[in-house]
Amino acid sequence: MGPHRSTDLGSLRIGNRMSTTDPPSRRVLASSVTSAVSAGLVAVVALGLARWLGPAEFGTYTVVSTVAVAGSGLLTWNVGMAVMHRLPTADPVQATRLMGTALSVVLTTIGVVSIAMIGIGKLLYVAWGIPTEITWHAFALAVAQSINALGDCSLRGRRRFATSAAVRLAAAVGYALIAMVMLLRGVRHCLPFVDAFAVVTVVAGATACLIAGARPHGWVRSSVHELYGHGMPVTLTSLLISVLFTVDSMMLMHYAGPAAVGVYSVYNGMPRRLAGILMNDGVGLALLPRLAVIDTRMALQWVRDHTPLLLGAGTLGFAVVCVPLCLLVGDQYGFSVVAMVISGAGIAMHCLMILLGFVLTMDGSHGSRSHLVAVSLGFPVGIVCLWVIIRSATPMAGLWAFAAASAVISSAIALIAGWNQDRGGTREGTRR
After folding, report:
1. How far apart are the two ends of the chain, measured CA to CA in Å?
2. How many CB atoms lie within 10 A of CB 3?
3. What Å distances lie between residue 168 and 81, 282, 303, CA to CA?
4. CA-CA distance, 70 to 82, in Å (whole number)?
5. Average of pLDDT values for 424-428?
């Protein structure tokens, strides 16, 4: 890697001098904490829906929400990350063009996909038996989340962290209040809650776009190149992972029905969301700046040496998290210690997968391509594991399948990363 790269996670060597990693600013920390609180509030609402709607309706709610997340990635191709990366160094004219182009491209994509959804809905009904009504509700939520992602990334790219946090929190509070009113009025079907979430989300996204200065004004070719040429391997990798861990709920719904998906979501979905918050807004906040400048080989070796500890602690921790969730949602979801342990192990393996992805992605273009290669190799094996295990048509099968798929992808990333190390490590100069 070169002599100037640090081999200490606690300090960074730059040139011939040592410096301590600057801690994240208070604004970034406040934004991350507020984001975690907002996500936690939405999770609390989901917990209430799980209790009051029952396993079958909550299972449908879970599938729609999960598919919408994957759909939003396909609608935006994660250009929000490029927007967030480019805006801090862009002048006012460039920033306006960049945000306007991103919004115009995404809105055009939404329009084209809206037409294609007629055929897609019929295809999903024939292949999976998914009602077209559910497909359209999922698409509407995906559209809302796409606009919201662009608005949030635009605000963050313009360093307006407090505003971003305020919009997120307002959206979460608004959704919680609407859901509470709907429950008190006796609504016991999941799709009205999906619609309410979509409305609140799109309003929050439109507000964020308005405040940030994003206006659809047509395409600027140079901006399109910046948006879609930046981090394309990262985008493709995230899409593959998103599809892999979306199709598990769809398969379970097909083979075991919506009630099984509801049980699966309590044991896996909610703790997995907590894990995502911890990894992205917690661990990632402090770790990513260090990974951008330290020796990648050393970071990978550290992960390898601590894998047993990470998996053991993660399994125990997330299994314990399942206990209050199962107690709060009621007896209709069951209470199984074995299921909690399987869930904890699967989520711990999933976090290991995310951590390895952090290390490779922050190594620059070469590391991002290596990450894509690893996920691409593991993707078909993961799909086969999901299909073979979930065919047994039990909620426990979903937990086993998720753990197996996470293990497959983690192993593929570790193998490709190790192979790169054997060839002399990652190339110099790929990082900023």
Report:
1. 14
2. 7
3. 17, 17, 33
4. 18
5. 45
- Strand-pairing partners, residue 6, are 294
- The residue whose two tokens read 């039990």 is 394
Q: Is the pLDDT of residue 339 over 70?
A: yes
The rounded distance, in Å, linking the Cα atoms of 130 and 236 is 26
Whole-angstrom Cα distance, residue 310 to residue 303? 9
Polymer length in residues for the chain? 432
Q: Which residues of 79-97 are buried (b: 16+ CB within 10 A; e: fewer)?
A: bbbbbbebbeebeeebbbb
- Say if residue 147's pLDDT is above 90: yes
Judge contact between 288 and 85, C-beta under 8 A.
Answer: no
Alpha-carbon gap, residue 409 to 385, rounded angstroms: 11
Report how far residue 402's alpha carbon sits from residue 248's, in angstroms, rounded to the nearest whole number.
Answer: 7
224 pLDDT more than 90: no
pLDDT in tens, 39-59: 778 888 988 898 899 888 988
- Between CA 205 and CA 148 the distance in angstroms is 3
Among 192-196, 304-308, 330-334, 382-386, which is the least confidently predicted range?
Answer: 330-334
- Does 20 or 141 have the greater pLDDT score? 141
- Cβ-contact 252, 397 below 8 angstroms: yes
**Angle of helix 296-329 versus helix 395-422 axis, rounded to 10:** 170
> DSSP labels for 246-285?
HHHHHHHHHHH-HHHHHHHIIIIIHHHHHHHHIIIIIIHH
